[in-house]
Amino acid sequence: MEDDKIYITDDTGKEYAFKILMSYDLEGKEYVIVEDPELPDQAYVFCIGENGTIETVEDPELLDIAEELIGTVNGDE
Fold first, then answer.
1. Model-level pTM?
2. Cβ–Cβ contacts within 10 Å for residue 8, how many?
3. 2-59: per-residue pLDDT in tens?
4. Which end of the chain, N or C, is less surrounded by CB atoms within 10 Å?
5. Please, what's the b/e burial string for 38-74 (b: 16 or more CB within 10 A of its CB; e: otherwise)?
6. What distance, in Å, lies between the first and last C-alpha atoms of the chain?
7. Strands, E, within 1-77: which ranges?
8. Could you tell me if 34 and 44 are in contact, meaning their C-beta atoms sit under 8 angstroms apart?
């Protein structure tokens, strides 16, 4: 993982580069909020596993936390 980018490979082997907006730890897990440079209005949340695995976060509670963090950083609250 570079300082401001994360690279994710899908099941077909295609690699995607995402810009890291922020990272945070929650209950012992590392999360990153990223955006696709081609779709800057769309943010994604991933959980980084201990062995470097990357999983998409789909839990509504965890997505709400990420949305609150982005809102705080952007001064929306």
1. 0.81
2. 14
3. 579 999 888 899 999 999 999 999 999 999 999 998 888 888 999 998 888 899 999 9
4. C
5. eeeeebbbbbbeeeeeeeebeeeebeebbeebbeeee
6. 30
7. 5-9, 15-26, 29-36, 39-48, 54-56
8. yes
